Amino acid sequence: MRWRALPHAHLCAGMLLSLLALTLSLAANQNQVKIEQGSVFAPCDFAAIFNFGDSNSDTGCMAAAFYPEISPYGETFFHEPVGRASDGRLIIDFIANYLGLPFLNAYIDSIGGTSYRQGANFAAGSSTIRRQNRTFYDGGTPFTLDIQTAQFYQFKSRTSRLNNQGKKHFRNRFPRPEDYAKAIFTMDIGQNDIAAVIEKVGKEDSHAVLSDIVEQFATQVKFLYGQGARTFWIHNTGPIGCLPLSLHSIHDPPPGFLDHIGCINFQNDLAKEFNEKLKNIVVSLRAKLPDASLIYVDIFSAKYKLISNAKKEGFVDGGEMCCGYHENGEHVSCGNKGRLGNGTEIFGGSCEDPSSHISWDGVHYTEAANQWIANRLVNGSFSDPPLPITHSCRHSQMQ
């Protein structure tokens, strides 16, 4: 199965005005935040973002490397396909915007004078942490996490040499050597690893495989740390058992197969086990890398909360897909042509209002859903420790 696959008030103005000004600044997440023992820190002022992941945060890698994305992908915000598996922006786009940084360009997409001055994106659709015995046509990808971190190493090495040569043209397009320690390293990968485990349930020791996956993840975090990374924003994996593409193939499930909102229990249980192991490994890395800040972000809970409260939040049922044809047991994938059982040729187009849907194509989320989720991630509501992303570099100062 292929899982293609967001100045203090002057004291002389009086204590009341000072407190009011501080309260307003905190509400806007613009200036300072109070953390534990009364310590007050200014925002991190990240110089760049370096992202690693799968199709949930791929901004053009797979489209540049293999086949370009097709319509109606990208229709909502970009009004054309731009290599994102959604109708518009992804969570990483909203994160970049929230931090005052530009959208991330894919590392391997060099067309059109691409600038990497404030970061680069190494994420690629279908990517896994653990290498899989699959070809691209079977839903695999050559861009596993270890390859992505190797690409980062090459990127840093080559751009550092260009900067050292003192050529202004290159210096304006790439990060400065000192920017890497002041960058945020975002990581959102693991969904495709869980999908691979699901396919082999009963054929291998799932618990041992999940442990191996998170150990390999930790190895890559330590590698990035060795290359100067100091702030990590690490997403766990989402509720894979709630993806409509899987749900639409289920008929007459036995009691207990689905949970109270209609998601597949055993698939979500595997995701939860992975997430627990991931959190434990993040905690252990904090002890091994004491001057690094590692924030664990519970994206599973954020997505599950949205799906559970879909109608309350203004969306249709979370099991409905916006793009593609999915009726009477017949399916045509988003952006593709297909022929129904009665011989009718049909195009898997998008729904009339993508903003009313959570799921875009059965696996990926719509821009509206991505924005809903991003808004709740960046303020620290789902983070451990509970820091807003603007202050995520401060965790090492709290330990």
TrEMBL record:
This is Uncharacterized protein.
